[in-house]
Design a protein that fits this description.
Mean pLDDT: 91
Number of strands: 5
Order of helices and strands: EHEHHEHEHHHEH
CATH superfamily: P-loop containing nucleotide triphosphate hydrolases
Structural class: alpha/beta
Strand content: 5-15%
Number of helices: 8
Strand order of the largest sheet: 2-3-1-4-5
Distance between the termini: 21 Å
CATH architecture: 3-Layer(aba) Sandwich
Oligomer: single chain
Largest sheet: 5 strands, parallel
Length: about 180
C-alpha cells in the first residue's frame, strides 16, 4: 500500500490554519480541505445555523464523523480544522493515528489583532462581543484547549509562521 501523508493543522481561531494550509497544500501539490467547509457541505447548513438549530453536541458529533471520513481518504492532503475539533470525542487521538498533526501556536495578542471585528462576526463564538470580551474568550479557550493542542506531533510557535518554516519543520519531521 502506498503511504499517504495527511497533514492536519490545529490551533486557535485566527492562528492561520486555513490561510497557511491553502498555501502549503499548493506548494506540496496536496489537496486542501477545510473541516468547517466540509461540515457545511455534509450538512447543507452554515455552522452558526447548525449551532443554533441543533446545538453544539450535534455539531461536535458531526465534526467527528466528517473528520474521520476525511482521514480515511487514500490520498495525501492538508486539512485545516476548526479550533475546537481536536478537543472533542477523542479527535486528537484520531488525528495522530491517521495523520501528522501540526499545532500553530500564536499569542493571544496576535490572535486578537487578527480577529478584527469583521472577522470575529463570522465566527459564532465571537459574535456580538467587544474587544475585551473577545480577548477574555481567547484566553479561556486557550486554557481549555492547550492540553489537546500540546499532543500535536509538530508544534510551531510564533506570530509570523511562514509556509517555508512549516515546510522545513515537516521535512525535519519526515527525516526523523
Amino acid at each position: 500500500m502506498k503511504h499517504h501523508s495527511k497533514i492536519v493543522l490545529i490551533g486557535m481561531p485566527g492562528s492561520g490554519k486555513s490561510t497557511l494550509g491553502k498555501l502549503l497544500a499548493k506548494q506540496l501539490n496536496f489537496d486542501f480541505y477545510d473541516l468547517d467547509e466540509e461540515i457545511v457541505r455534509a450538512e447543507g447548513m452554515e455552522i452558526p445555523k447548525i449551532f443554533l438549530s441543533k446545538g453544539e453536541g450535534y455539531f461536535r458529533k458531526l465534526e467527528t464523523k466528517v473528520l474521520a471520513a476525511l482521514l480515511e481518504k487514500e490520498s495525501s492532503f492538508l486539512l485545516s480544522t476548526g479550533g475546537g475539533a481536536p478537543c472533542y470525542n477523542e479527535n486528537m487521538e484520531l488525528i495522530n493515528q491517521r495523520g501528522i498533526s501540526v499545532y500553530l501556536e500564536v499569542s493571544v495578542s496576535e490572535l486578537l489583532k487578527r480577529l478584527t471585528k469583521n472577522e470575529a462576526d463570522k465566527r459564532p463564538m465571537f459574535q456580538g462581543l467587544d474587544t475585551a470580551e473577545i480577548s477574555q474568550k481567547l484566553y479561556d479557550l486557550l486554557t481549555e484547549r492547550e492540553e489537546f493542542y500540546q499532543k500535536a506531533k509538530i508544534k510551531l510557535s510564533g506570530d509570523d509562521i511562514t509556509t517555508e518554516f512549516l515546510i522545513s519543520e515537516l521535512m525535519t519531521y519526515f527525516r526523523n
